[in-house]
Specification:
This protein is an alpha+beta fold. The protein has one domain. Helices cover 50% and strands 13% of the residues. It has ten helices and four strands. Strands 1, 2, 3 and 4 form a four-stranded antiparallel sheet that branches. Keywords: Membrane, Transmembrane, Transmembrane helix.
Length: 303
């Protein structure tokens, strides 16, 4: 899917949807098996917007699906580790999610069972929590930065640039998560605790969150650019598109935290038997009709 783009300009809008699947295949008392299933191919749908007359856009922003709304709502608060389950046992100690740099240092020094996965998830959480105030602004409606409002046509051009950047980022992210360097950092699937590379896992987690921050930059450009009142619905619809990658990250990170918690609950009782866990999926999905509405907004912004 390299080269697939999410394009937008006055006459055409494209979609690039990325789904990256990351699976913990099995766990046991002595080691845990990590399987990276890879990335589902991005799907591209291109369609032209060339109607001779201006299209009528609904005066209200598109209502978002409940699942997407819930993901966006979680961006307004910090991610914190859940308390240990009543089924957890203190021996042997299993790696836990660490939300502070000091905790991460201790994890790297001690390297308890399942440390590679806990390390990866902990870096994601710490990087995500570091930008949480910016995320909260983005999911709190239109909060423009100081400055003169831009015209509707200028805002439409900005949205087109942002959508193209999101598509480029999605394609690069896909290639990164498919790369041998990403997969190989976790070591052999049957001996990850002994063969995983801590430096590589840390670097990969930071690179993954570098993409997250770039997606956040895109969302801020859509949602924090000052516009006139006639463009507010356009801002909300365009902002919803730009927030979809961040919502995908939010779900992925939350699921990774759950997997670490499940390791702590189940590994002490595995007795050498493999324990299969459900997949953790990084997906970027657009609500039905949203990209069409943004295309109509763009089209109506030009005479």
């Amino acid at each position: 899917m390299a080269g697939s783009k999410w394009r937008a300009h006055p006459v055409a809008v494209g979609i690039c949807a990325l789904a990256a699947v990351l699976l913990i295949a099995a766990l046991s008392a002595g080691s845990w098996l990590l399987g990276l299933l890879g990335v589902a191919a991005g799907a591209v749908a291109m369609f032209g917007l060339r109607a001779p007359a201006r299209r009528q856009v609904d005066p209200e922003p598109l209502e978002l699906p409940a699942t997407l709304h819930a993901s966006l709502a979680r961006m307004a608060r910090q991610i914190r580790p859940a308390p240990d389950s009543v089924f957890a046992t203190p021996a042997p100690e299993i790696a836990r999610l660490e939300v502070t740099p000091e905790g991460l240092t201790t994890l790297l020094q001690q390297r308890p069972p399942a440390w590679p996965w806990a390390l990866f998830a902990s870096v994601l959480v710490q990087r995500r929590n570091a930008v949480q105030p910016r995320l909260r602004y983005c999911v709190s409606g239109h909060h423009p930065r100081p400055g003169e409002p831009v015209g509707r046509g200028e805002y439409a051009r900005l949205v087109g640039q942002v959508l193209e950047e999101i598509g480029d980022l999605a394609a690069k992210l896909e290639g990164f998560m498919l790369s041998p360097g990403f997969v190989g950092a976790f070591g052999d699937v049957d001996a990850a605790d002994r063969t995983a590379d801590a430096e590589a896992i840390t670097d990969n987690a930071h690179r993954l969150m570098d993409y997250h921050e770039k997606f956040l930059d895109c969302a801020e450009r859509c949602l924090r650019t000052p516009v006139g009142t006639e463009s507010l619905v356009f801002v909300q619809d365009a902002g919803a598109v730009a927030l979809c990658p961040l919502a995908g990250y939010e779900e992925f990170i939350a699921t990774m935290c759950t997997r670490v918690e499940e390791m702590r609950d189940l590994l002490p009782y595995a007795a050498g038997r493999p324990i299969a866990l459900e997949t953790a999926t990084l997906s970027m999905d657009l609500p039905d009709g949203l990209i069409r509405r943004v295309g109509e907004h763009i089209e109506n912004s030009f005479p």
